[in-house]
Amino acid sequence: MTVKKISSRIWAAAAVILLIAASVVPTYAAPYATYTYNIDGRPQASPAAYTPIMQIDSAYMGLPSPMADPSDMVVGPDGRIYIVEAGNHRVDVLDPHFKFLFSISEFINDQGVPDRLNGPRGCFVTKDYIYVADTENNRIVVFQLDGTIDHILEQPTAAVFEQNSIYKPVALAVDAAKRIYVVSSTTYQGIIALNDKGEFQGFIGAQKVTYNIIDIIWRSFQTAEQRALSTQYISTEYNNITIDDEGFIYVTTSSIDEAAQRSSLRDKSSTYAPVKKLNTAGNDIMARNGFFGPGGEVNINDSPVFSDITGASKIIDVALGEEGTWSIIDEKRSKVYTYDSDGNLLFAFGDKGMQIGNIQSIEAIAYRGSDLLILDKTANNITLYTRTEYGDILINALRNENNRRYDRAVDDWEAILQRNTNFDTAYVGIGKALYRSGKWTEAMEYFKYAYDVSNYSNAFKMYRQEWVSKYIIVIPVVVIAVLWGITKFFSYAAVVNKKTALSTKKRTFGEEILYGFHLIFHPFDGFWDLKHEKRGSIRGAIFYIALAVLTFTYQAIGRSYILNPRASYASILVQVTSLLVPLFLWVTANWCLTTLMDGEGSFKDIFIASSYSLIPIPLLVIPATLLTNVLTQSEMGIYTMIITIAWYWVGILIFFGMMVTHDYTLGKNVITSLGTIVGMAFIMFVMILLSTLVVKMVGFVSSIVTEISYRL
After folding, report:
1. Distances from the Cα of 106 to the Cα of 40, 62, 115, 128, angstroms
2. Which of 133, 177, 398, 492 stands 20 to 30 A from 187 (CA)?
């Protein structure tokens, strides 16, 4: 090969490299951590779903003057970007490449008089119009897409508005029927619904009031004049709004009581949630199926020692993404939290700072296809984020689910797990895809991995239905056999107890045990014979205590996954302690009290009667625990009912057992029972006091011994 040919090939390769380099958009490593949360509320590291590309300032846009107090940002259906500037009293319109097209500020109103926007705070763009919340002018101004004024919607009038109320629209959304939903910063009755002519239609989605119990009690003692002068309880106002293609309204608020907002995260309640999805009737229909309710930060810091950012998230905007995803922003932390249509947290990212990708003061968020735009109020710029390969796979998984391509969805979720094994939502996604394909057992396994009890229960219900249809003939035979066995056992116990009652021989251990099954159904004569005819014994009492301990141990480990998804249970030592301590306190306190109140029962009698009263626990708790393995989540009320009956039964037996043992009247037994409970608390207090004193004495002696050893 000649030198000339080699040289020409080198130049050709260099040209190709330059062309490739020129086509690559400059990206930057994310200066923040991306994460999700596990079921315990601990953050789990996640691959970045979005990375920053560039920051776009006023000079890059070519604005007529630098941005001032930007308050909102919207991406229109045509891909143009609209920036609302309250400081400059205008709306800047940019092309899809972030280059300035024109501003909306001054215009001739419908009276033919020169007019202009004054402190606008929000806007909404449809395929026909630009709606601007002209906040300080207390109106909505509607422009055509070229910036020409179309019409003005003045303050609506209605009898339901408070007298002398001020109308300050700060955000709005418009549905396909041109109904306008307005958020007014001074209106507490909810979102203002208007028709296309600006006529008032009603309020929707009013927030519930948060009350302080101390203030409520105090107000009950106040006069009418004092209540009028005191703080009034009013609904919290919304601060932002958007609407999806189906007409569902997403609203945010940042003025909810701190404790109420935290509670909404834990119990996934919508009452005091900082973000809601409303239908046209104003009802919240947002799905909250994640580990925590959608509302921003879960791992909340309360100590300024660890961080200067404390307390729950302050949610100020919401944006709608692809395939049912949506994002909210936290003004405190300058973070973005993205959820799917079921309320699962897909990822969270962002931080405060000057580095590209971080935001000094986050103000608004908007999607432009797969890209994400964030408005920085302090830096007066927009940060453009692009979706990563991980984010693309995530969206594609949701797309395949929505389009019922479940096999492809499984492949996508598995690809996500290869990149992020901490992502529980991927396990849920695979489980859902398998469920919809009719693979119930496989779906249950994946739901287990994500601790998704609700979906696990649904899959188990279908598996159970399939199993029952297959073994429909066997089930009645098994049920009849079990009932026959129980009936035969109780018949045998009745025969033995009747025979033993007429016998003068010493009771065997088996006869003492079987007597309990007579006592639980005949407490009055049962406890009488237990004491006077010596039908029970200490060894029988110990047997039933041991049986109760084993029952509680089995209950802890034998409950179904639905009741115990974390597979957590106490050791047998803890079970022994949790039963013996209250039993010891009851027997001791009752004996001490009844000795002073002419009780006829000895300490031994009280112990035996109380121990035999525990028989309903194994009798009902064991079958109930077995039953949990064939019940769904919605049917667990049956289990709860059986357990409740068992404890009520035990309580009744103990009550009447003490009454018969001490030969008390009903009234006197009630008094001594209440006194026994008080005595238990007193003994517990003395024991704690004594143990504390012993610990201090041991510490004192130990310190003296140590001091002496040093001096010697």
Report:
1. 54, 19, 6, 20
2. 177
